[in-house]
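Dear H.,

Thanks for agreeing to be a second pair of eyes. The structure we're designing against is below in token form, covering all 301 positions.
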């Protein structure tokens, strides 16, 4: 299957749709990944992806489509009706859907921004059953930075050649495995994140511009700093500083693309006062300097 044949199947299985604000569902298929190259059916492949921004009215219902899709919300709120359940798709929530099942996707409020990916079905079926027992398709917001890292890597492997097709297959298996591990941990009787870890993570998510010291955190929460670091890593797959830097870089990306502010000022806003350190850290995390990222990253409308 290619993005072109997927588009034809998508519209032939569409039950209903309503779109406004100059958005067409055909935009879903405008970033094809495997038009000219086909992997073995034993390997999963990304057919196409698209970053979407919509506002109400927006909705569509579909069924019997022989692919899977994944939706990552970045801003606003969407709504998913799936397998008899209604889910709110909030920022950083991740939905993993079997498109053969009837489902409805809509924007109930003023704005919803999300990325949607369509992937081939045969091998993905196995992983879906493991990660989404009873079709429990939604994964908790902000629960796993490793998941977001793999997702971003997957979207950077979208070129249509054999090498990148193999890299996509690897990233998809890593992504599916991470979803399985998240679900496994959620279903474990031992699953409980200590309150002080949740509070520290919330501070990173909302007050990322504030200076951070592991010693100060240990004093605040009255927990040994080595234990604090070890437990945070166990629950969130990153050390506290790694997680904070991830949040800071993601915020820096938004500022680089949506403002004309100077690089040094953006570094200050995310809590990194030393501009050279900000540039080094940004390049370490993204592979490019902030200036190059601003110049070369296409704007999504």
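And this is the sequence the design step returned. I haven't edited it by hand at all.
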């Amino acid at each position: 299957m290619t993005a072109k044949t997927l588009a034809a199947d998508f519209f032939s299985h569409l039950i209903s749709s309503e779109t406004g604000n100059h958005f067409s569902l055909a935009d879903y298929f405008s970033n094809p990944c495997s038009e000219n190259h086909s992997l073995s059916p034993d390997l999963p492949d990304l057919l196409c992806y698209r970053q979407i921004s919509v506002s109400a009215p927006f909705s569509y219902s579909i069924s019997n489509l022989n692919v899977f899709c994944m939706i990552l919300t970045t801003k606003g709120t969407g709504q998913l009706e799936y397998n008899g359940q209604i889910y709110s798709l909030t920022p950083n929530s991740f939905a993993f859907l079997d498109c053969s099942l009837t489902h409805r996707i809509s924007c109930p409020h003023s704005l919803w921004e999300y990325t949607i990916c369509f992937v081939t079905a045969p091998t993905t079926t196995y992983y879906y059953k493991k990660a989404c027992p009873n079709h429990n398709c939604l994964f908790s917001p902000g629960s796993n930075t490793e998941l977001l890292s793999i997702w971003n890597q997957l979207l950077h492997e979208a070129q249509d050649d054999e090498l990148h097709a193999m890299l996509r297959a690897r990233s998809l298996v890593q992504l599916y495995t991470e979803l399985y591990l998240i679900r496994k941990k959620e279903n474990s009787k031992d699953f409980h994140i200590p309150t002080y870890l949740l509070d520290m993570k919330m501070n990173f998510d909302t007050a990322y511009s504030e200076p951070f010291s592991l010693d100060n955190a240990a004093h605040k929460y009255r927990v040994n700093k080595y234990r604090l670091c070890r437990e945070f890593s166990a629950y969130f797959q990153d050390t506290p500083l790694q997680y904070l830097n991830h949040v800071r870089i993601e915020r820096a990306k938004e500022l680089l693309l949506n403002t004309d502010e100077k690089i040094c000022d953006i570094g200050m806003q995310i809590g990194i006062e030393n501009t050279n350190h900000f540039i080094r850290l940004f390049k370490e995390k993204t592979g490019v300097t902030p200036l190059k990222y601003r110049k070369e990253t296409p704007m999504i409308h």
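Two observations from my side: The chain has a mean pLDDT of 87. The CA atoms of residues 257 and 294 lie 6 Å apart.

Warmly,
E.
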